[in-house]
Specification:
Helices cover 35% and strands 17% of the residues. It has 181 residues and is α/β, with parallel strands linked by helices.
Length: 181
Amino acid sequence: MNFIHSEKTIWILPERTATRTIGQLLNFWEVVILEGGEYKTCVPHKNLIGEFAQGLRHEWEVSELFLDYEILLNVRNPYSRMKSYYHSLFLKNDCMSSENCHLNFEQFLDKYCQTHGGLLHHFRFEQIFEKRPPKLVIRYENLGEDLIKIPFIHKKYEESEEFRQEWNRVVEKNIFNKETL
């Protein structure tokens, strides 16, 4: 879970839904993460190419904490999200401890993405909408348009040249797109 206390916001960032892009933008706020039952301040740091990055978390169990906070949820088309997961995570990391690296995308779906269980818990959001519906859903496919609707993002965009430069780099130029398929 990712908390921006100054904005009374919980931002849910499931895998493959523009987490790195959001992390770059959130360098302009103090973000607290819940990791292993502990709250930790997420300190902005430089990524491999010398730009700022955030260590945001993908966990998204619905929290009973901070009930007065608004929830933001990033989502992505399920097909492109699963394809991105397959290429960017499964083939590069997850299959290394198994004998399944030979699976093509269709075989991967058949094996790991049945109607229940498997990887589906990473890709379904029913519990969020049932327990604490988000105030805004940020769609990967409409990232800039949806992000600018968030009042604190819009305000920072209007007031900070440095923020606009980072916005142009990570949102407009979509620098992470080559890795997400």
